[in-house]
């Protein structure tokens, strides 16, 4: 009974309930009184789980790794500051996704991602076939420093959003439609033609939006090197953005966190809740695996 109540308490905390709300919920549902001190002690035990989880060995090779950061407000020296929880998710050779870890730092930067990548390598990861990231300045070069053979795809959806920031509202729908000729093209050559058409039509009015495509072209078009099934996996960071959205949902009641440990505890418990539903390999896994084995025959083995 006690163990069951403890699991309930941890689950409620993971879903964003405060200690006082959990105390009331346990009393109403189970007719059982648990003090706020006891609830805090139970949730604090999670710290030991976090240390073990964060230091566990990783697999030698991951087919794809998605990386993104999520910002939280944390109290520090009597001030509330923004801090970033860096999260990485890897696609394993069995077709399942795995959260590789979480790391807390200041505002998102390529320099801190270097520490994240180095940590993953120290835990046994030797190679990443393809990375999928946002277009943070210097990120691609940082990845190549630690995993030099990795192909780095910058998220196309991020690029579309960033481009539209420079477009006035009345033109956004038409401009977005024209951009589709780039990212939905069947080949890199066709995508290049789509970019040229976009520049011919909009370049004089929205030159900076066009320039952002040109400046990131090599990283934006890596997915054209792969078959359709792999393209659909890597061209966007939607997987990890959806994960971050669910973390936000679980932590939305906490406007700020009192300590770094409190942030990590909440994010870890949220991740544990979300990943309970990761019970199936990705779609068309047999086809996708065969493609990876064919393309990267010298780097992965089953």
Q: Can you put this structure into words, describing what you see?
A:
Helix content is 54%, strand content 16%. The chain is α/β, with parallel strands linked by helices and 302 residues long. Strands 3-2-1-4-5 form a 5-stranded mixed β-sheet, with helices on both faces. Helix 5 packs parallel to helix 6, helix 7 packs antiparallel against helix 10 and helix 9 runs antiparallel to helix 10. The longest helix has 16 residues. The chain is globular, with a radius of gyration of 22 Å. The mean pLDDT is 90.
Give the SSE layout.
Elements (H helix, E strand, L loop, with lengths): L1 H13 L4 H12 L5 H9 L1 H9 L6 E16 L2 E13 L5 E9 L4 H13 L4 E7 L5 H8 L4 E4 L1 H9 L4 H15 L4 H15 L4 H9 L1 H4 L7 H7 L3 H14 L8 H16 L9 H11 L7
Which tags fit this structure?
302 residues; 15 helices; 54% helix; globular; alpha/beta; single chain
How many β-strand runs?
A: 5
The main β sheet shows up as: 5 strands, mixed
Secondary-structure class: alpha/beta
How confident overall, as mean pLDDT? 90
Query: Strand-residue fraction?
Result: 15-25%
Outline: globular
**What is the radius of gyration computed over CA atoms, rounded to a whole number of angstroms?**
22 Å
Percent of residues in helices comes to: 40-55%
Q: Output the helix-strand order.
A: HHHHEEEHEHEHHHHHHHHH
Low-confidence stretches: none
Q: Which sequence of strands runs across the widest sheet?
A: 3-2-1-4-5
């Amino acid at each position: 009974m006690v163990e069951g109540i403890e699991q309930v308490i941890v689950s409620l905390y993971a879903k964003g309930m405060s200690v006082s709300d959990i105390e009331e919920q346990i009393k109403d549902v189970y007719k059982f009184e648990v003090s706020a001190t006891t609830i805090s002690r139970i949730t604090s035990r999670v710290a030991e789980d976090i240390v073990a989880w964060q230091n566990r060995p990783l697999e030698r090779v991951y087919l794809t790794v998605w990386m993104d950061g999520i910002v939280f407000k944390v109290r520090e020296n009597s001030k509330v500051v923004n801090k970033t929880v860096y999260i990485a998710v890897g696609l394993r050779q069995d077709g399942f996704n795995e959260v590789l870890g979480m790391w807390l730092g200041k505002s998102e930067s390529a320099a801190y991602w270097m520490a994240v990548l180095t940590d993953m390598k120290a835990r046994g990861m030797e190679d990443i076939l393809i990375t999928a990231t946002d277009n943070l300045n210097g990120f691609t070069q940082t990845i190549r420093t630690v995993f030099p053979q990795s192909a780095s795809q910058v998220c196309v959806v991020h690029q579309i959003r960033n481009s539209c920031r420079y477009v006035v509202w009345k033109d956004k729908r038409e401009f977005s439609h024209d951009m589709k000729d780039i990212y939905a093209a069947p080949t890199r050559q066709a995508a290049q033609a789509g970019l040229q058409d976009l520049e011919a039509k909009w370049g004089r009015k929205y030159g900076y939006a066009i320039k952002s495509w040109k400046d990131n072209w090599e990283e934006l078009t890596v997915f054209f090197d792969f078959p359709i099934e792999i393209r659909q996996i890597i061209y966007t960071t939607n997987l990890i953005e959806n994960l971050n959205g669910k973390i936000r949902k679980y932590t939305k009641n906490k406007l700020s966190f009192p300590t770094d440990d409190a942030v990590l505890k909440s994010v870890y418990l949220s991740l544990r809740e979300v990943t309970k539903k990761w019970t199936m390999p990705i779609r068309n896994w047999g086809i996708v695996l065969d493609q990876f084995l064919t393309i990267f025959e010298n780097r992965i083995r089953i």
